[in-house]
Amino acid sequence: MLDTIYLNGAYLSRNAATLHVSDLSILRGYGVFDYFRYRSGRPRFVSDHAARFRRSAEGLHLPLDYTDAELQQIVEELIHRNGGGDGGIRFVLTGGYAEDGYTPRDPNFLALPYAFSQPAEFYYEKGCTVLLHRYERQLPRIKSIDYIEGIRIQPALKRVGAQYPLYVDRDGHVRESDRSNFMIVREGKLIAPVEDILLGITRHHLLKLAAEMGISIEERKVTTSELLAADEAIICSSVKGAMPITQIVSGSTFSNRAFGSPGPFTLQLMEAWKAYE
């Protein structure tokens, strides 16, 4: 994390910023967040992220007492105070200090800047490995601070050599990853899940970019069998951009699949994404 952060109206050194132990984010894991990048001192898609952050807060009945203009001003000031360049900012809205340990009140708002570290170039050249994992997020449209399952299964990912999970629901549909969306390419179409997922900002802009490139798009459920039979697969997020999936592994429930090298649609999107604003 970079040195200057924002907490409830004040710009503070990260070492001076504190939350009380009664905050519901600590006691119950109750809160929401959003994360976006900035490049050369310019925030990317900040209005989209602020809108999703506000929707997430409304979904957990947490008042966000900042206008979009105020959020934009905080972002610009944080980037300036931390030296510009490339980085990321995380908005966090906690459940607040709960006297009874359960009832949200007076949320705490934080904006936390981070240095940015791009995933290794290897994963863009050769692709990443994903693990199919049965799990359904409790509130898929809300970007909550609850990442218990994604963190819990880190040892399982390491055991099979996977970098990311892909969550499969009870009906056999592949929904999303722990911190990313995913898409497949099949028969010349880019197919992206849309139901019961977090609607990623990078996902939105990649689909917009693909449409501008003349690529046919479908937004619908994707079955496990469709994923395993796909021509290409992509994982995407603010940190990753568009990254090829070239290996799918699983336990005994599902089959494995290797795609070989990144496919032509993925390579086109990756190249176009570099210049997309």
Automatic annotation (TrEMBL):
One of the record's GO cellular component terms: cytosol
Pfam families: Aminotran_4
Gene Ontology molecular-function annotations: branched-chain-amino-acid transaminase activity
Pathway as given in its UniProt record: Amino-acid biosynthesis; L-leucine biosynthesis; L-leucine from 3-methyl-2-oxobutanoate: step 4/4; Amino-acid biosynthesis; L-isoleucine biosynthesis; L-isoleucine from 2-oxobutanoate: step 4/4; Amino-acid biosynthesis; L-valine biosynthesis; L-valine from pyruvate: step 4/4
Listed GO biological process terms: carboxylic acid biosynthetic process
Residues that span the membrane, as ranges: none
Domain of life: Bacteria
Keywords: Aminotransferase, Transferase
SUPFAM superfamilies for the chain: D-aminoacid aminotransferase-like PLP-dependent enzymes
CDD domains: PLPDE_IV
EC number: 2.6.1.42
Coiled coil: none
Keyword field contains Transferase: yes
InterPro entries noted in UniProt: Aminotrans_IV (IPR001544), Aminotransferase-like (IPR036038), BCAT-like_C (IPR043132), BCAT-like_N (IPR043131), Class-IV_PLP-Dep_Aminotrnsfr (IPR050571)
Catalytic activity: L-valine + 2-oxoglutarate = 3-methyl-2-oxobutanoate + L-glutamate; L-leucine + 2-oxoglutarate = 4-methyl-2-oxopentanoate + L-glutamate; L-isoleucine + 2-oxoglutarate = (S)-3-methyl-2-oxopentanoate + L-glutamate
Family: Belongs to the class-IV pyridoxal-phosphate-dependent aminotransferase family.
Name used for this protein in its record: branched-chain-amino-acid transaminase
Organism whose genome encodes this protein: Neolewinella xylanilytica
